[in-house]
Each structure stands twice: as C-alpha cells, then as structure tokens.
Amino acid sequence: MQTAFIATPTTPTAAPDPITNTPFFPPIDLTHAREVLRLDGTVTRIRLRSALVEAMTHANGELAAWADGHKSQGRATLAAVQADTIDGETVHVQRYRRGVYAWAHAELLDRQANVDTTPAGQRQADATGPTADSLRADARRAWREILGRSGWTVELL
Questions:
Q1: How far from 40 is each of 43, 48, 68, CA to CA, in Å?
Q2: What is the separation of C-alpha 145 from the centre of its chain, rounded to a whole number of angstroms?
Q3: Do 29 and 73 form a contact (C-beta atoms < 8 A)?
Q4: Which of 94, 95, 109 is nearest to 138 (CA)?
Q5: Which of 5, 103, 125, 126 is the most buried (most CB within 10 A)?
Q6: Would you write out the chain's pLDDT as a tens digit for each of its 157 residues?
Q7: What pLDDT, on a 0 to 100 scale, did the predictor assign at position 110?
Q8: Whole-angstrom Cα distance, residue 122 to residue 137?
Q9: How far apart are CA 149 and CA 137, in angstroms?
Q10: What pLDDT does 124 receive?
C-alpha cells in the first residue's frame, strides 16, 4: 500500500540574512518581517525578500529628499535623526520598518491573489484580511509621519 504525501505550509526555521540597505536607512530582517506579517511557508524566502527589496526601494525614494536634508546636517543614519525612542529604537526607524512591511505585504497580496482564487475564496479574503490598497495606505501614513506630515492635505481646484 502506498501512502500519499500531502504538503502542508510550514514556518521556515532557518534565519535568513538581513537585507542590507543604503547607509542612511536601516537593514530589514526577513525573520522579523515574516513574524510581524504572520507569513507561513507558503510565502517563500525569495518571494518575501523580493517584496521587501521593492518596498525598501520605494520607501527610500519617498524619503530621499528628507534624508538628504538630514545627511547634509551631519546625521548619517535614520536612527541619528532626533525622535522619540520607544523600546530602544527611534520612532522614525519603527515607522520606516512598518511602512516597508506594509508595502511588501501589499505586493505579496497582489501576487497571491493572481495565482488561484475562487470567487468564494476572494470574498472571504476580502472580509477577513487587509487589502493591498489599505496596506499601501498604511505604508504611506508611516512615511508621512516620518516627514512630519501626518495629516491629509486637500486642495480645492
């Protein structure tokens, strides 16, 4: 009698290397990101790394002019920019990471939804989890908070 093998998602046990960043912005740790985003083994290490790299690139672009201003004043890293410190880390670093994680999660959701989702499965996902759009809004909010623009600006035409 032959036994069928059924693959089930597992949580990876190997600790991946952190993703290095530009000198101003902090590296991103894949294990921490996976835990915060509550991702299991169905999201491969390479897919997560790719989404995080794209998110870091986007965040760095959004914050580039602001970072250049601080670098010109002698602040070599985001952590060196004066901000409140909570849990041993500046809120700027925490918000940067939160934005990167949210943007990466949105990228993963976009790709995952394109793979194979039945209409019933899509309705359940929409009802129970964050959408890519809401995650991108979370990312932009985190980066606006770093920039000191936490509110919305509306202009009448």
A1: 6, 11, 37
A2: 15
A3: no
A4: 95
A5: 103
A6: 555 545 445 444 555 579 999 999 999 999 999 999 998 888 999 999 999 999 999 999 999 999 999 999 999 999 999 999 999 999 999 999 999 999 999 999 988 754 444 555 555 555 546 899 999 999 999 999 999 986 665 567 6
A7: 87
A8: 21
A9: 14
A10: 52
Give me the residue label for tokens 């009698």. Answer: 1
User: Which residues sit opposite 28 in a β-bridge?
Assistant: 19
CB atoms within 10 A of CB 34: 20
Q: CA Rg, the chain, in Å?
A: 18
Query: Side chain identity at 39, as an amino acid letter?
Result: L
The first and second tokens of residue 30, run together, are 């894949």
For the chain, where are the alpha helices, taking DSSP H only? 30-37, 45-62, 64-72, 91-113, 119-128, 132-147
- CA–CA distance from 102 to each of 32, 53, 80, 105 (Å)? 13, 12, 23, 5
**Pair of tokens at residue 82:** 């004066």
Instruction: Round to whole Å and give the CA distance between 14 and 27.
Output: 18
Amino acid code (one letter) for 128: T
How much is the pTM? 0.78
